[in-house]
Amino acid sequence: MAAVTEAPPLAPVPAKKPPRKRGRWTPYLLLLPGILWLLVFFALPMVYQASTSVQTGSLEEGYEVTWHFATYWNALSEYWPQFLRSVLYAGTATVLCLLLGYPLAYLIAFRAGRWRNLIMILVIAPFFTSFLIRTLAWKTILADGGPVVGALNSLHVLDVTSWLGITAGDRVLATPLAVVCGLTYNFLPFMILPLYTSLERIDGRLHEAAGDLYARPFTTFRKVTFPLSMPGVVSGTLLTFIPATGDYVNADLLGSTDTRMIGNVIQSQFLRILDYPTAAALSFILMFAILIMVTLYIRKSGTEDLV
Amino acid sequence: MAFVNWLKRHLVVIAGLFTLGYLLLPNVVVTVFSFNNPKGRFNYEWQEFSTDAWTDPCGVADLCGSLSLSLQIALWATLGATILGAMIAFALVRYRFRARGAVNSLIFLPMAMPEVVMAASLLTLFLNMGVQLGFWTILIAHIMFCLSFVVTAVKARVMSMDPRLEEAARDLYAGPLQTFLRITLPIAAPGIAAGALLAFALSFDDFIITNFNAGSTVTFPMFVWGSAQRGTPVQINVIGTAMFLVAVLLVLASMVISSRRTRQKA
C-alpha cells in the first residue's frame, strides 16, 4: 500500500573547508562594523547597567558607584511576586502555544496539500498589523457581556475559572486569563514557524515505514514524528518563553494591577518612578534568571548543538 | 461509528483550523471595527456602521506623522542591519578567523534576551552618555536588535550554497570581485531579501525597545500605546486593516508570479 513517494535526496555537498588563500584581513574587515555596533550598543550597555545597579544616590544629586548590593536583595524581596507571576504566565502561555501550534504546524506540513501556501500566508500576515492594535482587539473580544464571556458564562466555565482564581466573577478582562490569552496569541507564530520547519524536513517515507511495521497513527506520531520534531519544539518554546517573560504589553492592556509582570515593574521604575538602580537590578535579575532557565532547559532536552 | 472514524482522521485538521481561527480572529475584529462609529473616545464597542474613518485616515492629529516616522526608521534600520548583518554572515561562513565562538555568542545573545532587558540597558547607556533621545537613538536600537536576525537568515542561505560554484568561477579566471558580484551575491540574494524583510517587520512593529529609547518621539506603535490610554481613534483600525490587506495582496501577487515562472520553465 505504501509506495515510496519521494526520490532519495541528492548526495550532500562535501563539507570541506573552503580555500582561504587571499585576504587574511578580509574577515576582520567584514566583521568590524557589525560587531562594533553590537559591542557598543548591546554589550557595553550591559556593563553600564551592571554599574548602575550598584549605585546609590538620587536624580538631583547624581549617582555614585557604592557597591550597594542590597539593591538586589531589596528588589527581589519586594518584587518576587511579579517575578513568579511572569514565569508562571509565560510558562502557561508557552505550553498553550505548543498545544495550539502543533496541530496547525502539522496540518501545514502534512495535510494542507494545495492550501499549504495560503495557510502559511494567513499565519504570517497578521504580523503586518501592529501587534498593539491586535492586542487591543482582544479587549473587544473578551469584553464584559460580550459573546465570548456570555458563552463561557452559560457553560459555567467562568465558575470553574473563578474558583481557580484565574478570572474574577463575570469578567475575563483584567484577569490572569486575559493576560495569558493575549500572551499565547501574540507569541503563537513564533511557535508555529520553527515547528513547521522541523516537521517539513521529516521524510514522508518514515511514516510509511512505521505504518508498514503495524504502528497505529498515534504510535507513529509518538515514536517517529514527535521525536524528529524536537528541534522545532525546543526552539519554538524558547522563542515563546523568553519574550513572553519580559513582556509588559499584554499585562498592561489586558490585565490589572493584580496581573503586573516583571516587565511592567521594570518599565515603570525606568520611565515613571526613575529609580534607576532598582530598575537596573531587576533587569539584571531577569536576564540571569532567563539565561539559567534556558541553559538548564537546553541541557535537559539534549539539543546543545542546536544553538 | 462512521462519524467517530471521520473525526479521528480529521482531528488534527480541526485542531489546526481552530488555531488558525484564534490567530485570525483579532484581525477580523480590527477590520470590522474600522467601520465603527464609536460614541465615546474608545473604539471597543460596536455602535453603528460608518465609513468616516476610511475616507479620512489622517483625520487624527499626529497619527500619519507617526506612521511616516515609523516607515522612515524601518527603512533606514533595514538598510543598516542588512548591510552589517550580511557582511558578518559572509565572514562567518566563508572565512576562518580568531574568536569565532565569541562572535557567534555576541550574535546569538540579543535574540535570547528579553527585549525589556536590552531596552533598559541601552537607555542606561544613553542616559550616562547624556545622549538626546529621539530619532537617532531609536534607529541605533533598531539596527542593533535587527542585526542578529539578518545574520541568521543570510547565514542559512550562504551555508547551503555550493562552494564549488565559486571555485569554478575562479578557475574560469573571474576576479574575486567579479566572482562575488556575479556568483555569490545572486545566489545569496534570497537570504538577504528574507533578512531585510524580517528586519523591516521587526523594526516597524517594535514597541518595547522604542518605548524606552524614544524620548518624546512618537512612532506608530508608540501612538497606538498612547491611544490605549487616551482614547482609540477608529483610524488606527483603518491603518491596521490596510496594512494586513496590502501584505496579503503582495504575498499573493509574488506567489502567482513565481508559480507562473516555474510553469514556464517546466
Please name the defining characteristics of this protein.
heterodimer, A: 307 residues, MetI-like fold, two-stranded antiparallel ribbon, 13 helices, 69% helix, disordered N terminus, B: 266 residues, mainly alpha, 2 domains, 11 helices
Return the string of H and E elements of chain B.
HHHHHHHHHHH
- Annotated CATH topology of chain A: MetI-like fold
Number of helices of chain B: 11
Strand neighbour order, sheet with most strands of chain A: 1-2
Give the overall silhouette of chain B.
Answer: globular
Strand content of chain A: under 5%
Radius of gyration of chain A: 24 Å
The averaged pLDDT of chain B comes out at 91
Q: Tell me the series of helices and strands of chain A, N- to C-terminal.
A: HEEHHHHHHHHHHHH
- What portion of the residues of chain B fall into strands of 2 or more residues? under 5%
Structural class of chain A: mainly alpha
Largest interface: A-B, 89 and 88 residues
Low-confidence stretches of chain B: none
Number of helices of chain A: 13
Tell me the CATH architecture of the largest domain in chain B: Orthogonal Bundle
As a percent range, the share of helical residues of chain A equals: 55-70%
N-to-C CA distance of chain B: 46 Å
Indicate the CATH class of the largest domain in chain B.
Answer: Mainly Alpha
Please describe what this structure looks like.
The complex is a heterodimer of chains A (307) and B (266). Chain A has helices spanning 26-53, 70-111, 116-124, 131-141, 147-154, 157-164, 176-200, 204-212, 217-228, 230-246, 249-254, 262-273, 276-301; strands spanning 55-58, 62-65. The relative contact order of chain A is 0.13. Chain A starts with 25 loop residues before the first helix and ends in a 6-residue tail after the last helix. Chain A has 307 residues and is mainly alpha-helical. Chain A is built from 13 helices and 2 strands. Chain A has a two-stranded antiparallel sheet with strand order 1-2. Chain A has one domain (88-306): Orthogonal Bundle (MetI-like fold), CATH 1.10.3720. Helix content of chain A is 69%, strand content 3%. The radius of gyration of chain A is 24 Å and the shape is globular. Chain B is an all-alpha fold. Chain B folds into 2 domains: 1-55 and 235-266, no CATH class; 61-232, MetI-like (MetI-like fold). Chain B is built from 11 helices and no strands. Chain B has helices at 2-33, 52-55, 63-94, 100-108, 115-129, 135-159, 163-171, 176-204, 208-213, 220-230, 234-265. In chain B, helix 3 (63-94) runs parallel beside helix 6 (135-159). The longest helix of chain B is centred in the first third of the chain and has 32 residues, at 2-33. The radius of gyration of chain B is 23 Å and the shape is globular. In chain B, 41% of the residues are buried. The model of chain B has no long low-confidence stretch (mean pLDDT 91). Chains A and B meet through helix 1, helix 2, helix 3, helix 4 and helix 7 of A and helix 1, helix 3, helix 4, helix 5 and helix 6 of B.
